[in-house]
């Protein structure tokens, strides 16, 4: 006689906390990401579901692909959005191009460089990470010395580091590296849309970003693109990619990046694709040039206003500062933890503390996408000024 499992009583009861409807407070997100979503993007995310192979949804995927090509300034066919956050795109980039024994050079010493090192090591690559002070960028002479001795197959560069607030001199670096036989991976999660970036013109082989920062879409999708030469290498790997989910050739087929008929690979986050489509449409409508200029102008206003308060910016040289994430030193006699709490509680504005090497040293203020405006610069500076008044640490002398 079959067991009747429907008669078994559930020991774990429905949680009372789920009875009230969800209520999310309205806050101005002026940290390193995620950023606020415009109404157009939120509306898209709430639209009705479609099947992941529905012809109407495939057309939306094609729209997203074209939008990413514009944002990246590339004509690469192998361009799509990874179903995952920016970290998933990082793993996709590294795991697909690296094979055991490859020489992997990491030019970034911030938290994202550290994670690239961890991923490369797990793949079985021979990794080398340059030791660069967190408030400085890659020096070309130092890079030349390392490349001459290490002779890497693959080089990782974090264009804009949200943990330190640095913006790497990417054109100079890629110009040098393109004369060598190596693949260039660039992380643009915190820089895409905030600073000039040209995948094809600058000779970038693999470029990836995230949806939740300057693009103002919900987190969960990550634009990525592979050059034709990289695609050729992927097709001639000695061993299969260790991750089925992040196999770029399989995902690329689902996104219609080749000549073969599309096949099911995974169920895409349908509504996030809608949202990213609208976010890319907003960027295309404004144009990259105007978006870059807006971020540059607002960042310069923020830097001046912070310095007018007597604060010291963490990155000394303006040319090396990331427009989308400003790092400012926490004053010696200030409670660095309480100030962001005060700003959040009194003004409903979010800023963040440091991360990795900058933890406990800086605050991070973001200017991303629709949040990047002179009005918001004034709001966050005024809030910071008010909360600084009541959070000075009293001397014990």
From TrEMBL:
Q: Catalysed reaction(s)?
A: glyoxylate + L-alanine = glycine + pyruvate
Q: Which residues carry this modification: N6-(pyridoxal phosphate)lysine?
A: 213
Q: Which cofactor does it need?
A: pyridoxal 5'-phosphate
Instruction: Cite the GO molecular-function annotations of the record.
Output: alanine-glyoxylate transaminase activity; L-serine-pyruvate transaminase activity
Q: What is one GO biological process annotated to this record?
A: glycine biosynthetic process, by transamination of glyoxylate
Quick one: which residues bind substrate? 364
Which superkingdom heads the taxonomic lineage of this protein's source?
Eukaryota
Pfam families this protein is in?
Aminotran_5
Respond yes or no to whether keyword Transferase is given for this record.
Answer: yes
Where does the Aminotransferase class V domain start and stop, copy by copy? 43-355
**Can you tell me which family this protein belongs to?**
Belongs to the class-V pyridoxal-phosphate-dependent aminotransferase family.
Which named protein is this?
Answer: Alanine--glyoxylate aminotransferase
What species does this protein belong to? Larinioides sclopetarius
Show the taxonomic lineage: Eukaryota, Metazoa, Ecdysozoa, Arthropoda, Chelicerata
């Amino acid at each position: 006689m079959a067991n009747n499992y429907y008669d078994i009583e559930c020991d774990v009861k429905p949680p009372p906390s789920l009875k009230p409807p969800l209520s999310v407070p309205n806050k101005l997100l002026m940290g390193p990401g995620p950023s606020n979503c415009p109404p157009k993007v939120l509306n898209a995310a709430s639209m009705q579901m479609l099947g992941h192979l529905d012809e109407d949804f495939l057309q939306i995927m094609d729209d997203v692909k074209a939008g990413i090509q514009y944002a990246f300034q590339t004509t690469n066919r192998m361009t799509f959005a990874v179903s995952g956050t920016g970290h998933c795109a990082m793993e996709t980039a590294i795991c697909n191009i690296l094979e055991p024994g490859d020489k992997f050079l990491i030019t970034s010493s911030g938290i994202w460089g550290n994670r690239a090192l961890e991923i490369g090591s797990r793949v079985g690559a021979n990794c080398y990470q340059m030791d660069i002070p967190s408030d400085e960028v890659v020096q070309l002479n130092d890079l030349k010395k390392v490349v001459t001795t290490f002779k890497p197959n693959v080089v990782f560069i974090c264009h804009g580091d949200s943990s330190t607030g640095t913006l790497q001199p990417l054109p100079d670096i890629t110009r040098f590296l393109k004369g060598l036989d190596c693949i260039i991976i660039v992380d643009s999660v915190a820089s895409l849309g905030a600073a000039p970036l040209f995948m094809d013109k600058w000779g970038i082989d693999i470029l990836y970003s995230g949806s939740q920062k300057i693009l103002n879409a919900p987190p969960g999708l990550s634009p990525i693109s592979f050059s034709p030469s990289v695609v050729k290498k992927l097709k001639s790997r000695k061993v299969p990619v260790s991750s089925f989910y992040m196999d770029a050739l399989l995902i690329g087929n689902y996104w219609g990046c080749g000549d073969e008929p599309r096949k099911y690979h995974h169920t895409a986050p349908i509504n996030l694709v809608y949202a990213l489509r609208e976010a890319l449409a907003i960027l295309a409508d404004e144009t990259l040039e105007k978006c870059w200029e807006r971020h540059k102008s607002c960042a310069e206003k923020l830097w001046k206003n912070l310095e007018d308060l007597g604060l010291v910016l963490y990155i000394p040289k303006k040319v090396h500062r990331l427009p989308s994430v400003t790092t400012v030193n926490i004053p010696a006699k200030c409670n660095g933890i309480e100030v962001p709490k005060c700003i959040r509680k009194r003004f409903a504005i979010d800023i963040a503390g440091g991360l990795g090497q900058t933890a406990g040293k800086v605050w991070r203020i973001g200017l991303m996408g629709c949040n990047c405006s002179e009005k918001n610069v004034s709001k966050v500076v005024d809030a910071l000024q008010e909360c600084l008044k009541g959070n000075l640490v009293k001397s014990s002398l």
